[in-house]
Amino acid sequence: xxxxALLAAGLLGGMVNALAGGATLLTFPALMATGLTPVxxxxxxxxxxxxxxxxxxxxxHVHRPPVxxxxxxQIGLSILGGICGSGLLLVLPTGRFPAVxxxxxxxxxxxxxxxxRLRGVRVATAPGLLLASAYGGFFGAALGVxxxxxxxxxxxxxxxxxxxxxxxxxxxxTLAAVAVFVAKGLVAWPATVTVLxxxxxxxxxxxxxxxxxxxxxxxxxxxxxxxxxTLFYAHRFW
Length: 238
Description:
Blueprint: H1 3-19, H2 24-32, H3 38-59, H4 69-91, H5 101-114, H6 125-138, H7 143-152, H8 159-183, H9 189-210, H10 215-237
């Protein structure tokens, strides 16, 4: 696959991440198509997409949450989870790690879809956030879907504010994992930088767009993206 195709995959992936999560549906297969092994493609993909969530959160200043005690705690849990997940990836056999991805994505999508009907439910968000962030460090596909599903069960019901908080927490988990991958020398830099360039532009553009899209549209994008991701990875890895 040529660099122009990788750039386009990064651009679209950055926009998708900013709006709902799921950029890996585009960028991970694109990196695999260059001949990279699954683990190196996964690590390179994490590096390439790391800034897109953060740029989206910065761009969507209207819905960005305040830096209060809750947000600081959530960021800390996300960083810890990202480190644990990336460490787990490094010690597992490389051929086995994608097998559970379709299950995780499918459950997260279903949870997000029924979240409006679960307003009376109270969940242990701290353990859930830690596990979700560990998953993000482990593989990262649809981390945004999983975090959105978790946060949608919290006190804030506005999908746009949930999306902005999701972008911040996904950034924390992914950047923590990236530090591990870079330290271990698992990144294929030429392909990564190309996808990264597209993802930075796409993440910023997606953040600017997301602030103008109705909450119902954001929810529909998340659910549709989750369904597509479930089907895609089930077909690819099972």
